[in-house]
Design a protein that fits this description.
This protein is an alpha/beta fold. Strand 11, helix 7 and strand 12 form a beta-alpha-beta unit.
Length: 339
C-alpha cells in the first residue's frame, strides 16, 4: 500500500512517499480503505517534533483525521461489515469523556501511526460510523476538529437555546463550533479579519459578524449585542493574542473555551477578572469516542455538512497542504482526497 511517512527524523523534509506491505486486520480490528484525510495544526506541530515524547518517534505515518470504507473485518468483530462508511476515532485509548492519563497514548499520527495511508487497521472499538450524507472529505474532518468543537460547545459548554456564543475565526474548529451552536438553538457572533469569510460564515448561520481588523474593539461590540451583559460562551483559538478580550466579552459566570494558542501561549492579563466575575476558563482538547458517537448522530439527524476549504490536495501533496495552514487563508478544513 502507499503511505506518506516521516522517515529518519522529525521535520517536513523527512516526509516521504513509501510503499508498504498491505496490512490485514487482526482479531477485533477492521481494515479501513482511506478515501480522504484532513489536516490539523496538531499534525504540523507533531511532525516538527513539537510534542516531544508524546509524539512517538519516526518512522511514523502522520495525521489523525481520515475516513473511508471498511475493506475487511477481523475475527471477533461484530457490528461492522465490509463496505461500511466509517472514520477512526482520534485515539485508540480514549473511549469515554474528557482526557484521562492514557487518552493520548493511542492517538493516531503520533505516537502511533495515523491515517495518511491507503489501508489502516483499527480496533473496531475505536471506529465510528460516518453519516452517509457526507462525502469522504467531509467525514474526514470529524475526528479531531469536529469532536473538539462538540466537546467545547455541547458536552462541556452545554450551550442551549437563547444563549449567545462568540466564535473566533473561520478555521475548522471555529466553524464546527458555530454550526453546533446553531443546532443547539444559540445565537452566534463570528469574528474574522476577512469580510469575504464573514459572508461565508453568515451562510453557515452566524447571526452577527464582526471584522476585528476594522473593529478591534470587538469585545465591546459583543457586549453591546447582548445588551451589555456579555456573551454566554467564547470559543477562543488565539490564546495570548485574544484571551484578554475574550474575558472582557464574556458575561459573569460565563465560559471561555480555550482551544488554540495561535497568538501565543503566555497571555499578559489580570487573573482577577476571571475570579471576581466567576468566569469558567476551560481548556479543551478533543474528546472520547462516546462524544464522537453523539456528534455523528447529531450531524446525521440534522444533515449538517462540515465546511471545507475549496482548494483540495492530492495524496502526495501533503507537504503543500501542511504549508497552507500557517498561511491562514483557508476557510474550514484543509483536506487531501485524491487517493
Amino acid at each position: 500500500m502507499k503511505a506518506m511517512r516521516l522517515e529518519e527524523d522529525f521535520g517536513l523534509e523527512n516526509l516521504k512517499r513509501v510503499d508498504l506491505p498491505d496490512p490485514e486486520p487482526g482479531p477485533g480490528e477492521v481494515l479501513i480503505a482511506i478515501q480522504a484525510v484532513a489536516i490539523n495544526p496538531r499534525d504540523r506541530i507533531m511532525m516538527l517534533g513539537g510534542y516531544g515524547r508524546m509524539g512517538g518517534r519516526p518512522p511514523l505515518i502522520p495525521l489523525c483525521d481520515g475516513a473511508g470504507r471498511i475493506a475487511a473485518v477481523g475475527d471477533g468483530v461484530e457490528g461492522f461489515a465490509q463496505g461500511d462508511f466509517v472514520f477512526p476515532h482520534y485515539s485508540e485509548s480514549w473511549p469515554f469523556g474528557t482526557p484521562g492519563p492514557d487518552a493520548h497514548r493511542g492517538a493516531h499520527g503520533g505516537p502511533i501511526d495515523g491515517t495518511m495511508r491507503a489501508l489502516m487497521p483499527v480496533p473496531a472499538r475505536a471506529v465510528i460510523r460516518a453519516p452517509e450524507h457526507l462525502s469522504p472529505a467531509e467525514a474526514a474532518s470529524l475526528p479531531c476538529a469536529g469532536v473538539t468543537a462538540w466537546s467545547a460547545v455541547v458536552e462541556q459548554g452545554r450551550i442551549g437555546p437563547g444563549q449567545t456564543i462568540l466564535v473566533q475565526g473561520t478555521g475548522a474548529i471555529s466553524l464546527f463550533a458555530l454550526q453546533f451552536a446553531k443546532l443547539a438553538g444559540a445565537e452566534a457572533i463570528l469574528i474574522s479579519s476577512s469580510d469575504a469569510k464573514l459572508d461565508r460564515g453568515r451562510a453557515l448561520g452566524a447571526d452577527h459578524c464582526l471584522n476585528y481588523r476594522t473593529d478591534p474593539d470587538w469585545h465591546k461590540r459583543a457586549r453591546e449585542l447582548t445588551g451589555g451583559a456579555g456573551v454566554d460562551h467564547v470559543v477562543d483559538v488565539g490564546g495570548a493574542a485574544t484571551l484578554e478580550k475574550s474575558l472582557a466579552a464574556v458575561r459573569s459566570s460565563g465560559t471561555v473555551s480555550l482551544i488554540g494558542v495561535l497568538g501565543g501561549s503566555e497571555p499578559p492579563f489580570d487573573l482577577g477578572r476571571v475570579v471576581t466575575r466567576n468566569v469558567r476558563l476551560q481548556g479543551v482538547t478533543v474528546g472520547g469516542q462516546d462524544m464522537a458517537e453523539r456528534m455523528a448522530a447529531a450531524i446525521r439527524l440534522h444533515a449538517m455538512r462540515p465546511a471545507l476549504e475549496a482548494e483540495r490536495f492530492g495524496f502526495e501533496e501533503l507537504p503543500q497542504a501542511l504549508a497552507a495552514l500557517p498561511e491562514g487563508k483557508h476557510f474550514g478544513k484543509v483536506v487531501c482526497d485524491d487517493f
